[in-house]
Design brief:
244 residues, 5 strands, mainly alpha, 34% helix
Length: 244
């Protein structure tokens, strides 16, 4: 057992290029620095995929070594490689073209066609993802004007995750702001509640004083109107008793 551990360390040191590379991979990848297998291919993110059906049980015989070991995100694994790692298919994506070319020999054309596609897979567009992240729900800002340093999203950049129509985060559903007034000094407001939040203490006190003055003026006006009505009723004989 001790001999096997020593041999594993020797092989890992040679494969990782020395102690620095080995310790770095031990810190970031756990036991992967001591796993050895056949290189099956890589992807645009620099992830490298390996397989070893001899030394490891099923479920552990396929693994990935991240291209960026310091900032690995599982969403950076493309769906086609994810299918291979979970044993949904045996052929790695790097061998898809060869597989399709081999299977095309068994296709019997039923009629003549001028199409430039000679297999049933059809045309496939190239897919581009932000920083190789295939799950774009992680590409979102972590706060106002700070972006997301984890996935490399710069400040002020738009989030990439999908939003339903009607969501306040959906650009098509955001109504333009319509201001109804301006308090000066760049303090435009769209409602009276908003205006009350923007006013200073002195402005609020002055406004309250103006409201009290308006209310007092209305009370005095109502008192004067009541006095005039009472005088008019008295002139018409109101309040007198017949035969008195």
């Amino acid at each position: 057992m001790v001999y096997g551990v020593i041999r594993n360390f020797q092989a890992a040191l040679k494969y990782r290029g020395g102690w620095k590379g080995l310790l770095e991979h031990m810190y970031t990848n756990g036991d992967y620095p001591f796993k050895f297998g056949t290189y099956m291919g890589g992807d645009g993110a620099g992830n490298r995929y390996y397989e070893n059906r001899v030394d490891y049980p099923f479920g552990q015989h396929r693994w990935v070594e991240p291209g960026d070991i310091h900032n690995f995100d599982s969403a950076s694994i493309p769906p086609e490689w994810h299918g291979w790692m979970t044993s949904m298919n045996d052929a790695p994506p790097s061998g898809e073209e060869a597989y399709i070319a081999d299977r095309k020999k068994n296709i019997i054309p039923l009629c003549e066609s001028d199409a430039n596609i000679d297999h049933n897979v059809g045309h496939q567009e190239e897919v581009y993802n932000f920083h190789q992240l295939h799950n774009l729900s992680t590409v979102r800002s972590r706060g106002w004007n700070i972006g997301n340093p984890v996935v490399g999203l710069p400040p002020g950049a738009k989030d990439s995750y999908y939003t339903q129509p009607g969501s306040p985060y959906n650009d098509a559903s955001i109504r333009p702001r319509v201001n109804i007034g301006d308090l000066g000094g760049g303090r435009a407001y769209k409602s009276q509640k908003w205006a009350d939040r923007l006013r200073t203490v002195d402005e609020k006190a002055a406004l309250e004083k103006a409201k009290e003055a308006t209310a007092q003026k209305a009370i005095e006006s109502e008192k004067a109107s009541a006095a005039r009505r009472k005088m008019a009723m008295a002139q018409r004989g109101a309040g007198t008793v017949a035969g008195a």
